[in-house]
Amino acid sequence: MTRRDGESHTQTLERSATQRPRLYRVLLLNDDYTPMEFVVRVLELYFRKTEQEAELIMLAVHHKGQGVAGIYTRDVAETKVAQVTDRARQEGYPLRLVSEPETET
């Protein structure tokens, strides 16, 4: 910045510390109608899980009532929930997914 009297001044700006965005877990919820094979397929296609990882998550959903498909930023988690829900409805399945904030430890 140059002033009219010819003097030059430098201004220092402070940066505030950036925080990591809050993460959200995408949970698959158990139901009595969606086939296990469909759950494995969406885990592989939408959550990039290997077949073995997808089967373990599907079994957790089946036995425990829910399973974690992945942990993402809020926008990504909500998008995945919407995409998989749409796909399930197209195939005629009532599969439910939810996203919830990851608890900080």
From TrEMBL:
GO molecular function: peptidase activity
Residues annotated as domain Adaptor protein ClpS core: 20-97
Keywords: Hydrolase, Protease
Any GO BP annotation: proteolysis
Keyword Ribonucleoprotein: no
Entry's family note: Belongs to the ClpS family.
Job description of the protein: Involved in the modulation of the specificity of the ClpAP-mediated ATP-dependent protein degradation.
Protein name stated in the entry: ATP-dependent Clp protease adapter protein ClpS
Organism: Deinococcus deserti (strain DSM 17065 / CIP 109153 / LMG 22923 / VCD115)
